[in-house]
Amino acid sequence: MDTTIIDKGNINLFKDLLIPEEASLILAGKPLFALGLVDNGVACGAVAGGPYESVFKVSSLFVAPDYRKMGGASLLLKTLENLMLGIKGLYEIQVDFTIFNEEHKLLEKFLLNTGFSFERGADGIYSVSLGSLANNPFYSNTASNVDVRRFSTLPVSCIRELDQKMRVSDGAPLSVPLESAQLEADLSVAVMNANHIDGFILFDHSFSGMLTLAYADSGSGAGSSAFSAMLKTSYQNALRKYSSDTKIIIQTVNSLSEALIEKLANNRELISRSAHLRISE
Hints:
Layout: E1 2-5, H1 11-14, H2 20-27, E2 33-39, E3 42-52, E4 55-63, H3 72-84, E5 92-98, H4 102-114, E6 117-119, E7 125-129, H5 137-140, E8 148-150, H6 156-168, E9 189-193, E10 196-207, E11 210-217, H7 224-241, E12 247-251, H8 255-264, E13 269-270, E14 272-278
Parallel strand pairs: 4-5, 11-12
Antiparallel strand pairs: 1-2, 2-3, 3-4, 5-14, 6-14, 7-12, 7-13, 8-9, 9-10, 10-11
């Protein structure tokens, strides 16, 4: 097996081994570094990423199933490490990933065996089963008298207005407009102020098709009581629609959200990983 730098000249050989956004960046000549793996003339793997401060962050690492357990992934990472040695200010390679299936567990084992150490990432991604929330008294209480409505019952004009408002303020929670996002409209709920959305909670299917609590905003009105009412309403709606073993994915972004998740999902499982390899001679 051999490695080669992926560029516009050979991207067609490797584009199916990269995530689509990476292939588009390379085609556009944008700053993204990628190495391809070749076996007897066949493109069979790739690693891609770029520097961030003193770290080279890997955005994807993939070897085709028929070529695994042949040392290809190790060769890609070792070649990457050797190339990074010559770049001043880069001290480690970092791989952030989330464990959703057996393949991700194999990646974790592989990185451990390759010499990576694991650290607590800045953003924690947790998995919690719908049924486990039933043990928390918070969800068993009836939602307050705050007027909470499902997104599935809201006029499209209200959702468009909210989306435009957030994009103007650089606070858009999703990369696509809300009206075309893969929202779980029966679990996504809002508190209304007149005919406008004030507080809201968004659930979508962004993580491998699993339910994801993508964004939450208690709004300017009832504050914590509105937030509590929305969470309880979402949970009660979820129980009507999904089985108790359904997984919900929640990401924390700061100490406040971390404390909230600890309180509201005490049976949560941390599924995000941050692997680090010190670059050395």
